[in-house]
Structure formats: C-alpha cells, structure tokens
Amino acid sequence: MPFLCSLLAHAAITTGALPPPEATWWPSDLPPRTETPLVETVPQHDARMAWWRESRFGLFIHWGLYAIPGGYWEGRRTGGAEWILNSVKIHPDDYMPLQQQFNPVDFDPMQWVMMAKNAGMKYIVITSKHHDGFCLWPSELTDFDVAGTPFGRDILGELATACRNEGIVLCLYHSIMDWTRPDYLPRRAWDDRPSNDADYQQYVGYMKGQLQELVERYQPAVLWFDGEWEGTWTHEDGQSMYDFVRTIDPAVIVNNRVDTGRTGMAGLTRSGGYRGDFGTPEQEIPATGMPFGVDWETCMTMNRSWGYQSFDVAFKPTKELVRKLVDITSKGGNFLLNVGPDERGRFPEQSIERLAAIGRWMQANDESIHGTFASCFTGLDWGRCTRRNLADQNQRLYLHVFESPTSGVIRLPGLLNDPVERGAFLLANPGAGPLTVEREGADLTIRLPEGMSVEIDTVLVLDIEGPAIVVDAPSIDVAEPIFLESTMLKFSAASDEVEIRYTLDGTTPEFSESSDPGDEPVEIRRSATVMARCFFDGAPVGKVATATLRRVKPLRAVQTLTSRPGLSWAAYLGSFETVAGLDGLEPAAEGVATSIDLSMQPRSENFGIRFTGFLNAPRTGIYRFSLDSDDGSMLSLGSVVVVDNDGLHSALEKSGVIALEKGLHPLRLDYFEGTGQDDLILKWSGPGFELQPLPAEALKR
Ligand code: H79
C-alpha cells in the first residue's frame, strides 16, 4: 500500500523516580475490572463497552518532543508537526537531543482536565508514545522518556491523578511504528545507523513491556494503537498484542489499529476476524450510520495538525465542531477531538476558546449527547436526531435543528409512533411551553416557537410511544441482480401499517392500477427495473427503492484436452501502481499453486503475481466472487472482468457476479503489492454453496 503520510506533529519527554503505585481507581459506572473474560458473551461485551458508548465525546492530546520544533526545523517553516522527523527526514541523532530541551513549565494537568470536562468531554486519550518513540512517562525500558528531560515529571501519572479526581476517564494512545528505537523495522531511508542487529521481535517485546507498565501503573481505560500499517506488523502480532493487554486488564478497550483489519482512513474494521473493539475513522465522518453494534470513533483535529504548530491557525468554527459532534452521535459514533499543546504545556488559545464555547452549548444540551444512540431517520433536511430509551419502552427523540425551515415547521418523515401527551419542548428552555405536534399521514410535524433563530443547534425533545418505527423505502430482497431462467423477489417494510406497491417497468409506483401490491413473493422471468414504495392511507411514504434485475445467458465453458490441478503463477518484480504494469514483463519466477495465496511472493514489497488457468464451475448458475487485496488486484473469466479491485490501496474487498456454464472457464487473477502490508484473498459463492475460499478442485490448468 502507498505510504502517503499526512503532515503534522511532534513528541515529548520524561523524568524522575517512579511514583508509588496509585491506589486502584475506577469510576463507579465502569465495569468491575476483573469480571470481563477475554472471550466474551454479547452482554459481557456490552458491559465492557457501556461507559465508552455513553461518553460520546473525548479529548485527544498529541504532545511530545515535536511540540518544541512546532513545525520549524533549522529556522525554516517545514510543517510536519508530530511527523516532522519523517517529513523533514531528520536523523534520529539530530532529533533525539530535543529531549534535553523539553521543559514544559506551564504543564498543569488539572487545567487540561477541567478544559475537557467543561467542554462536556468524558475521556482523554493522550499520546504515551507517538511515532518518534519518545515516552511521556518514566519507563523502566528506555531512557528516551520524560525522566531524561530537564522537566523530569511523570506527565501521565500527574494527568491520571487529575483525571481520577475529576471523574474523567484516562486513555492512552500508543504508536506501534517507532522511528528511533533501534530494533524497530523498517528503518527510514535516511537513518543510517547500522541495522544488522535490529531485531523486530525484540521490539515487539519492548512494546509489550511498556504496555504492561502503562496498564499496571496508569490503568488506561482505552488503549489506542496507531502506526500499524507498516509491513512488519502482522495480523498475528495484532492478535497477540490485543490478547496480551486484555489479559493484564480484562476491562480495557482496544481500538482496531492494534491489528491489521483497518480499512484506510475510513477506519472501520473489515471482516475476517481482526481484533479491535472499535473502528477509527480519521479526519472523516462516515456518510451514514453503521449497523447497530458496530462501535466507532472519529478522531479529528481542530485545526489541520495533531501536534502543535503555531502557524496552523485554520481552526474550525465552534458551530462546525458542535455540529460534527451531533452528526457523529446521530450516526452512533464517538467524537475524539484533538488539541496539540505547545512546548510549554499550554493549549493553543484558539483551542481553549473553542472548548469553552462547545462547553456553553453542552451545558444546556448535553442530555441530547451523553448516553444517547443513533437516529431512526436516514436523513432530515433540517438537522439530526439522537435518541434515548425511556421507561415503558417509550423513546425520547432529540431533534437537533441546524436550519430552521421558513415554514416554521419541522417534519419527522414516516414516523408512525404517536407522541406521549406532553408534546415537544425546547431542551435548553423547557418552560417555553409545549410545542404543537401534529400527525400528517405518516409524518409528525412540530411547530417551532415563533421567530426561533438557530445559532449552533437548537434541540427539541419529543417523547414517543414505543420504540421508533420509521417507514422509508421498502427493501427489495433478491438473491443476486442477475438470473438465468427466473428469480424470486420479496419486499419488506418497517411496519405492517403500510402497503408496498411495486412496478417492473421503471415507472414510479402510484397507489393505483399502474402498480401491484408487494405483499407476496413475485417470480421474475424477464429483465426488469423494479421500483417499490410504501403507502400510508394511500399516500406515498419515504423514498422509492430501485433494483435492476438482468436475465443473462451463462458464460460458455471451454473444452480443453488437458486439465491438470492448480493454477500457473508468475511472479514479477517492480514498483506497480496498477495490474496493467505486469503486462509484457519477464517473470522473475514461475510455478504452480493449488490455492490462491501469496506463499510464492518473491519479496516483501514491490512485486506482482499473475495466476492463470481455468476455473472449474461445478454447476451452471450464478456465481459471486469476492476479492480482498492489499494493494490492487483484478479477476477475469474469459474476456469478462469479474472483479476490478485495481490500484494502490490498503486492504479493500470488492465483489462481482457472473453466470457460468458448468465446466472450465479461462481464469486470470492479477495482483500487485507496493509497500507496507500485503494480502490476497479470493472467495466465491455459487449454486448451493455459501461464500468460501476456492477449493483445489476449482483450480485447473
Ligand atoms: O496521530 C495522528 C497522526 O500522526 C497519525 N494518526 C493520527 C491519529 C497518522 N499517521 N499517519 N497518518 C495519520 C496518515 C497516514 C496515512 C497512511 Fe495509510 C498510512 C496512508 C498509508 C499508510 C492508513 C493506513 C491510511 C491508509 C492506510
């Protein structure tokens, strides 16, 4: 995968004798620390995650030695922030002496904690160690730590105490990548220290030793790993690290960057048994919410950099930050908002102002954030919705109005529940009188107070009877979008109180003769554009669902005289950006494979593999192929590209569907790896079998 590191940042310090171990602390609403086993039931997992899910809002702190250069090196403004060692290609021998300058005399952990707490944040994640390897606590295992700075104080210890005193949960960010530790590999190209003795497993042992120190000494509630993407860190390392830290502290929550299952900057965990308790979108918010039970946290900078840079003044306005928090909460995620303190230990003035302003909004509205869960609506043109369960199965909806409609009325589309008596009210001003709630067909409407103007987000509260039932587009269930002779269609909606109508000719379903009722399964024998919609009392509700179904002929099988087991493979050397780069090259090695994997890879980076032969389809029917690769890959059968997963990217799964006649089909699977991690997984499903790896019988040459 590409190594396109973003800019930004810096590191920190250490000193001093170890403090006596703190008395074990744990906020009373966190699960007991010993009752969660490594292999959990769903209720045990939910109990472990409960405080984190309820918190919704946390403070990220990037602090370390990099705050000293602050994006300047040798008198030039270089940028790079916490990445400055890498961005400016600084030799460790020139970077590590920053340790002697680290003396943040203004460090006041109680002030930091209070700024977070007053902003409505419930936890703090601070960099125990960033990519530069500098440690913010006095570690027994390295001298490159705060203990070796003029400052000398145990920064994590002091922060832990302040957090404990104020009921803020302390969490630690810990980088797997380490640019200065001699055993870490790969070395930066400009780092010419002899590397013959470098022993990566020794480095992994060092990390584990440090994590044991951290967990036992500071009891972080979350371990937030990062820098996992270099090829040296494997899935096995990730599994082992996750199990290691949870064995020391069964209640600890660990992000998905501990393992290799993260999907790029979008940050969610791909399927395949990867460790990690939550996904980590970075600098982005998923476009839609996730299925219930998928935990995630968007981390984001207030300006552009994670580490301190005085010249980075591109701070997001408070309004935008609050709306991002609300947007994320309405999608079921957490918001981890960053501050990069300067070399004296001060938060930037702009960050202080924004935290205070967010706090003023939270003061009146935090009930709509803490302990709430995702919206029941897929989209609201005036704002967002968050929810809370009430007694008797009832629900409270928090309606976050971002733009007040000129009509003075907001609409809750397709919400079939009735309001409980009280009607709606303003969260920040409940005394302002009940707001009129009316039913208009399947919608509820709420009249906003006369002349209400919205500054950041005005929150209305509406209690409804029972869990929310929202009717939107019906779902169209069909096995695959292509079929041979016929296929079955089924429709379903969120409630029995609505009627589904559908058409097969591409026209929008009306409540008339021109459409058919969708209450029974339908057999389709011809290609069709299916459109379906819900109706309530004869009036349309929600969006129109569409599916294109194509009747196809199966790809003809080919006749061959010979058919031996396995696929032929050829391995190529080179730095590729697409699979087309393999064309016309001389292979560096060739052989036969009876399964599709990378066991024949000629080296760890910058290579390509082309598999050729035949796919043996056991029956005539519809087949789906799922291709998961890092970096690019492409699967063709005959002249048809079935899955195009080409290009430089991290692990990414794509699938394609094709109709095949029973028998042999010419197959070509191209793959290439740039730098970093590599992976190639091909699975298929077909007539009578579920998604699985291709068995040896399917591969011929
Ligand atoms: O600590 C902050 C940054 O210093 C750190 N993460 C946040 C929380 C960070 N390191 N690198 N980056 C951010 C950007 C790196 C992006 C890439 Fe990749 C790494 C591109 C390719 C390798 C991640 C993994 C995105 C795609 C694959």
Features:
flat, 701 residues, TIM Barrel, Immunoglobulin-like, alpha+beta, 30% strand, disordered N terminus, seven-stranded antiparallel sheet, 37 strands, binds ligand H79
Report what the structure shows.
This protein is α+β, with helices and mostly antiparallel strands and 701 residues long. It has 4 domains: 41-364, Glycosidases (TIM Barrel, Alpha-Beta Barrel), CATH 3.20.20; 383-464, Immunoglobulin-like; 475-551, Immunoglobulin-like (Sandwich); 567-700, Jelly Rolls (Sandwich). 15% of the residues lie in helices and 30% in strands. The chain has 9 helices and 37 strands. The strands form 9 sheets. The protein has a 7-stranded parallel β-sheet, with helices on both faces. Helix 8 (318-330) links the parallel strand 10 (297-301) and strand 11 (334-339). The radius of gyration is 29 Å and the shape is flat. Ligand H79 binds next to loops.
